[in-house]
Every structure is written in C-alpha cells, then in structure tokens.
Amino acid sequence: MGWLTHEVGWSHVFFFMGxxxxxxxxxxxxxxxxxxxxxxVNQKELDYIAAGGALINMDQKKNAQKVPFSEKWGQIKxxxxxxxxxGIYIGQYCINALTYFFITWFPVYLVQARGMSILKAGFVxxxxxxCGFVGGVLGGIISDWLMRxxxxxxxxRKTPIVLGMLLSMVMVFCNYVNAEWMIIGFMAMxxxxxxxxxxxxxxxxxxxPKEISGxxxxxxxxxxNISGIVHAYCHRLHRRDxxxxxxxxxxxxxxxxxxxxxxxxxGGGY
Length: 270
What we know:
By secondary structure, the chain is mostly helical. It folds into two domains: 1-59, no CATH class; 74-266, Growth Hormone, Chain: A (Up-down Bundle). It contains twelve helices and no strands. The chain has helices at residues 2-8, 11-31, 43-51, 69-80, 83-113, 118-124, 126-150, 153-168, 180-197, 200-207, 213-237, 248-262. The protein is globular and about 60 Å long. The two termini are 41 Å apart. Keywords: Cell membrane, Membrane, Transmembrane, Transmembrane helix.
C-alpha cells in the first residue's frame, strides 16, 4: 500500500484493496461450505467431527422463539454487571487500542516524526505487522501448551495475555532513541506482544453464557472498537504544536498496562 500511495496516489489504494476484497469474497463463496454440505466429506468424517464436539448442523433452520426487547436488555445488564465479563471487555478495549495505533498512527509517526518517505514507511511498517502475525499464532500455541501442562484454563488464557501486553509496553522506548532500526525493533516487539495477547475470542468462547454468546460477542466487539474512536481523538489532542506525533506511544503504553492488569483482576468464575 505504501508503494501504491507513492506511485499513483492514496485513492488507488482503496480501489486496489476494495477490488481484491470483492475477488476474495467470490473465492470464499466457492470454497467455504458447512461441514455437512462440503463436497469432499463423507459420513464417517462427519461423525468423527461431531464426536469431537463440533457443530455440523449449526446453519440449519430452527424454529427459534423471538426474544422480547425487555428480556434482551436484561441480558445486556447481566453481562455488564459481571465483573469477569467487564474485565474481558476492557482487556479487548486495550488490545484494540494497539491495533488501531499500528493501523493508523504508526505510518504517520514514521513519516512525520521520523522523516521517512511514504514508500519507505510502507515497507518498514510491514515488519511489525509480520511480527504481530507470528505472535498471534504463537500466543495460541502457548495457551494450548499451558492448558496441557497445568490443566488450568485460568493460567492458560491469562498468562499469554498479561505477558504479551506487558511486552507491548516497550514501544515507549521509541521516545528515547533516534536510530531507525531500534525504533522498528521496539515497535516489532510491541506488535509481537500484542499478537501473543490477542486471545480475546478464545476467552469469550470459554466464558460467555452459551444462550447469549452472540450478544456477549457483540458487546465484546463494541468495547473493542470504542478504543478506535477514543484513542484517535486522544492522539489528536496529544499532537504537539510542530505537528509531530510524539505521544502516541505513551497513550498505547497506558493501554498496554491496562490490558495487562485488568484481566487478572476480572476474577469471577474464570
């Protein structure tokens, strides 16, 4: 995207990425099927999948009863009134604050505060993203390994989240160095830590009441994306008079600290 912006302008990035998304959506429709509708599956495989606890008929039409709004509102209050669920929601808020920083403000930081060209910033910004991808996979592996070793879901989920978010706080050191390789290194470590700690949906699957898991997931997404609104505004307020983005990392450091401490305090039945 940095190369496209440099060569043909920022508007072409939207055409390219939007067109690519449309093409991928048709590929997705072609190759993704329900388990019991997949052309390459047989009954023995379906039985094996179902025996493992998977839902192979989850998209079948059911005569579900319509839930009154008053009852739905009561369910929302039940979720928000749970200290455990609120801790999970706040943790997702803090993790998403990092996500939005790297998507939006990190390239701006490289260009305005560090003097990189748009082309160079585009390539450089991909390094932390790759580290975040590796961290995301590794976080799941670590969580599963801890589950096998300890048998404690509490330890298996909280440990990667807390350690990952604490690792993300190293981005604050970018305020005190000038070497580009050190800046990228700290940011890559931060994104890597964010990836390790991004176990929010695993925690949701473990804790959300099954009858209202969709509603709980909606609140989970709502709290997470509120951070995109709040932190974008806070970044604007913290820009210095010279226009350089100097304090974005400090804001995200606070989010990392919050994400690293809020989930352990959730307690409850988790």
